[in-house]
Amino acid sequence: MKSETLMVGRWRFISLVFVLSLILILPAYLLGNSVQKAEKVGDETCAECHDEVAADFAKNIHAINAGSKGFLCESCHGPGSLHAEEGDATLIYNPAKDYNPTGTNTCLDCHNGSNFESVTGKAHYELANGCSDCHVVHSTKKMLLKKAGSELCSDCHQDIRAEFLLTSHHPVREGLMECQDCHEVHGGTTKHAFADGSRELCVSCHPAKEGPFVYEHQPVNEDCGICHDPHGAVADNLLKQSEPALCLSCHPMHFHTSITGFNGNFTGPIHTDRGGKSTLDGFKAAMLTKCTQCHTQIHGSDMPSQSISGQGKALTR
Predict the structure, then answer these.
(1) How many domains does the chain have?
(2) How confident is the model at residue 315 (pLDDT cuts 50, 70, 90)?
(3) 285 or 72: which leads in pLDDT
(4) Mean pLDDT, to the nearest integer, of 229-234?
(5) Among 140, 173, 203, which residue terminates a domain?
(6) Cα angle, residue 288 at apex, residues 285 and 232 outer, rounded to 5°
(7) 190 with 121, same domain?
(8) Is the pLDDT of residue 270 over 80?
(9) Residues 216 and 197 in one domain
(10) How remote is the C-alpha of 208 from its chain's centroid?
(11) Is 246 among the domain residues?
(12) Domain range holding 223?
């Protein structure tokens, strides 16, 4: 008896799921079929209702470079006969509103370069709400952007915008650079969507730091970001920390380093062969002295250092 009751309850549950499925899926299926049966009507029919959009779009780069005229609207929105007859916005495809990050992107049917490829779901258009988050397709603005380049970027990247307000920063807010100068905004395979590898990108503007040098500073060959924050920093020269704290994150302190970095008098050196001054206040002096007061060629040098202990590798000139 109990097993029969359990069986009846199970069938009732299955029946309920089936009915709900029909209620939810059937309308979408019927609507999908009705949209598929729509036919193309041509741009003139679209312009009868959307006259302002049509006037702007006539000057649009898509219209100017169109291979064939007559059905430009429906090349993106799909056949529009049902929409034209009923005036129902749901009966035609709208790429700006129907965007699905896991579905087909109509824009990529034409804009299919390698910088739009993504296997991880982290292309710019996938993380945003599609291409329409940045572009107004029917407009005549430059690159069809809603705002000028860097202003548009800062709307979403507020933390980066704040870094450009720090004391040392790349001149983006002054208008001498744009985010696109360093970033491939649509995406790509490189780290953080740099237009090139990190170091190669930096030395394209700072070639004097590239080398090769006879005496090299290894971090310079790896990644400029080890020492520098590219957007902005409190320390000078976009350094992540002020000297000597930055240098001491990799190098041990020179116990004898106490070249005067501030006003004060010091006694003579105890160990003359080691150079510098070694005093009770030496540590204080060292922490107030920049490493680059001695190691001036911090990115690399072709000339040997003059110090004996440096063995020609101290990057002093």
Answers:
(1) 2
(2) confident
(3) 72
(4) 93
(5) 203
(6) 165
(7) yes
(8) no
(9) no
(10) 26
(11) yes
(12) 207-301
Q: Which two tokens stand for residue 146?
A: 């809603």
pLDDT over threshold 70, residue 204:
yes
Please name which of 160, 176, 177 lies closest in space to residue 232, comparing C-alpha atoms.
160
The H or E element that residue 168 is part of is strand 168-169
pLDDT at 27 over 90: no
Alpha helices in the chain (DSSP H): 2-36, 43-49, 51-57, 61-64, 72-77, 81-86, 124-127, 149-156, 158-163, 198-203, 218-222, 245-248, 282-287
Q: What average pLDDT does this structure show over 88-95?
A: 86
Residue 76, helix vs strand vs coil: helix
Q: Residue 79 has which token pair?
A: 């056949």
3 state DSSP class of 28:
helix
Predicted TM-score (pTM) of the model is 0.68
Phi, psi for 103 (deg, rounded to 5)? -105, -165
Please say which residue of 150, 180, 203 terminates a domain. 203
d(CA 108, CA 45): 26
Structural domain contains residue 173: yes
Domain co-membership, 211 together with 297: yes
For residue 56, CA distances in Å to 77, 143, 145, 253, 303 come to 17, 14, 14, 66, 63
C-alpha 115/C-alpha 222 separation (Å) is 24
135 shares its domain with 199: yes
Share of the chain residues as helix, strand and coil, in percent rounded to the nearest 5: 45, 5, 50
Does residue 185 share a domain with residue 211?
Answer: no
245 phi and psi, to 5 degrees? -55, -40
Model confidence band, residue 170 (pLDDT cutoffs 50, 70, 90): very high
Q: Are residues 164 and 216 in the same domain?
A: no
Residue 52 lies in a domain: no
Q: Are residues 246 and 262 in the same domain?
A: yes
- Within a domain: 154: yes
**Confidence check: pLDDT of 87 > 80:** yes
